[in-house]
Design brief:
Structural class: alpha/beta
Shape: globular
Low-confidence stretches: 1-47, 49-85
Radius of gyration: 36 Å
CATH architecture of the largest domain: 3-Layer(aba) Sandwich
Mean pLDDT: 81
Number of domains: 3
Order of helices and strands: EEEEEHEHEHEHEEHEHEHEHHEEHEEHHE
Number of strands: 18
Strand content: 15-25%
Helix content: 25-40%
CATH topology of the largest domain: Rossmann fold
CATH superfamily of the largest domain: Response regulator
Distance between the termini: 100 Å
CATH class of the largest domain: Alpha Beta
Length: 394
């Protein structure tokens, strides 16, 4: 018996061919590596010489197989090469805000979370910041400037900015930081699957404004009249108006339950602020609730200063409102929002489409009380309220 790799050759029978010559037919049994028979075939032994033409054909076949193998190998290597190339890329995040942040882009909870996810500022991502001040109409020009610099993702502070950015681009991902209801604002199809190029973090909850009026009552037990400052301003559209209407409806429900009469005043230009506060004083408002809109967010310091000047305790869900001189702020936890923001960006940088990244919702809120403002207003904040504060500014 002659054995070859994987094959066992055994002597067979002698038979006549059609030409009358005797020939020896050998049987070969194909065995698996464990010795199990997997097939039987008859062939001649020893094999005939391969004709030159067939040899050429076989050579061509081998070359073709080698070619296909090379192509297949290159296709397998290609994704790795792309991945390596992307790994070496420095992604550019374009941020458009009302005011330039004082915190460096490589510090704070956002940068910390990015680092935990494998993104190191200056090594594989950078943030380019642009501020529009109190001129929302500048946003498209700032966006175009960032697009010329090759921005990969836009970072938007709020729904109004996101909407203006989407008017400039429908392809570059836009990630919001402290947006209102993106679905209600017609910037996303659903929370689970936004569908367009806008996703991010929602932090504005219309039902929270009822809590604000209740906090004012705790701080001022004799409160029976409260003003509500509602901002319009440039860029306000139907979606913004619907969101403001929902907030007004919620605050009215709580105010009615507490026996507090509301006076609603709307401002749309900086020049109308003084008139609005004079109107509050004329209506005998004892405090004011400042609704968060893009316009009032931009001018929160002016509002806080005017409230102090007119001796009106003021509260808002704008996180920095108390820091800027307002009596209280009760709003989303910026640390939690920053970390969720980083997680949304991480998903996109790793290849997800913005429309496939679920919208995240802030679930933690913080109460800040400015005791300096309380003292200037002649207010004594109840100890029970101070104990619940996450931040006390003295």
């Amino acid at each position: 018996m002659v054995a070859t790799s994987g094959w066992h050759v055994t002597a067979g029978r002698t038979s006549h061919t059609q030409s009358g010559r005797l020939t020896r037919v050998w049987k070969t049994r194909n065995r698996s590596p464990r010795g199990r028979r997997v097939g039987v075939s008859s062939t001649r032994w020893p094999p005939r010489p391969v004709p030159p033409r067939l040899a050429v054909m076989r050579g061509a076949l081998v070359d073709r197989r080698a070619f296909i193998g090379t192509i297949a190998g290159s296709l397998l290597v290609a994704p790795l090469a792309v991945e390596a190339q992307q790994a070496g890329k420095v992604y550019r995040l374009g941020s458009i805000v009302a005011e330039m942040p004082t915190t460096p882009p490589d510090q704070g909870p956002f940068s910390d979370r990015m680092r935990e996810l494998g993104w190191v500022y200056g090594q594989n991502y950078v943030v380019e910041r642009r501020a529009y001040g109190d001129q929302l109409e500048r946003i498209p020009d700032l966006a175009a400037e960032l697009m010329r610099s090759g921005v990969d993702i836009f970072l938007a502070s709020g729904t109004t900015i996101a909407r203006r950015l989407q008017q400039v681009t429908r392809t570059i991902p836009i990630v919001t930081f402290d947006a209102g209801d993106l679905v209600q604002g017609e910037l996303a199809a659903s929370v689970a699957r936004p569908g367009g190029n806008v996703t991010g973090v929602q932090s504005l909850m219309p039902e929270m404004v009822g809590k604000h009026i209740a906090l004012l009552r705790e701080a001022i037990p004799v409160l029976s009249r409260s003003g509500v400052l509602r901002g319009g301003g440039p860029g306000t559209n139907e979606a913004d108006l619907r969101s403001a209407t929902r907030m007004i409806r919620n605050v009215e429900t709580t105010a009615n339950a507490l026996g507090i009469r509301l006076q609603i005043v709307e401002v749309s230009r900086v020049e109308t602020f003084n008139a609005a506060f004079s109107e509050f004083r004329a209506g005998r408002a004892q405090a004011i609730l400042v609704l968060r809109t893009a316009f009032l967010f931009t001018h929160q310091k002016t509002v806080a200063d005017l409230a102090l000047k007119h001796r009106l305790p003021a509260i808002s869900d704008i996180p920095a409102f108390a820091t800027n001189g307002g009596l209280m702020s009760y709003g989303y936890d910026r640390r939690e929002a920053s970390r969720l923001f980083a997680e949304s960006i991480d998903q996109i940088l790793r290849g997800a489409q913005a429309g496939e990244v679920p919208i995240r919702q802030v679930t933690t809120f913080q109460l800040s009380i400015n005791l300096k403002t309380a003292k200037a207003l002649g207010l004594t904040i109840p100890p029970s309220l101070l104990q619940r504060a996450d931040q006390v500014i003295e």
